[in-house]
């Protein structure tokens, strides 16, 4: 366990944390939407990463998921990688891309749970086309 001061408290059970991410910078003035193909293709950042490959796949990049995975590991937490993907800046994320990414998260959450904490890193200002309930 980690004390308020940031020191590791020996003898305490660490958390089991599932991590994943969906990174996209939405520019509503852009003419094209961010599609599933945009998220699976590697560009300046890795393409779609799923499961254990995600940990090594984001290492060394200056993105939220990389920092989170590194620090959680340093603190001794059990990290359960879900999936991570990014797309280049574009207009809204298509519903298809959003639903496919969520399907990856949901399947692993059901199969690999339970968890103590599940942060989903959505860096940028990712927005999709369907309204929130």
Explain what you see.
The chain is built from four helices and four strands. The chain has 133 residues and is of the alpha/beta class. It has one domain. The protein has a four-stranded mixed beta sheet, with helices on both faces.
Task: Give me the secondary-structure topology.
Blueprint (H helix, E strand, L loop, with lengths): L15 E11 L9 H5 L8 E2 L2 H6 L5 H11 L3 E13 L4 H18 L7 E2 L12
Parallel strand pairs: 1-3, 1-4
Antiparallel strand pairs: 2-3
Q: Could you provide a short overview of the structure?
A:
With 133 residues, this protein is of the alpha/beta class. The protein contains four helices and four strands.
Strand sequence of the main sheet, in spatial order? 2-3-1-4
Q: What form results from the Cα inertia axes? A: globular
Number of domains: 1
End-to-end Cα distance, whole Å, is 36 Å
Percentage beta strand: 15-25%
Helices and strands, in order, run as EHEHHEHE
Give a short account of the largest sheet: 4 strands, mixed
Indicate the radius of gyration in whole angstroms. Answer: 16 Å
Average of pLDDT: 85
Secondary structure tally: strands = 4
Low-confidence stretches: 1-6
- Percentage of residues assigned to helices: 25-40%
Structural class category: alpha/beta
Give me the number of helical elements: 4
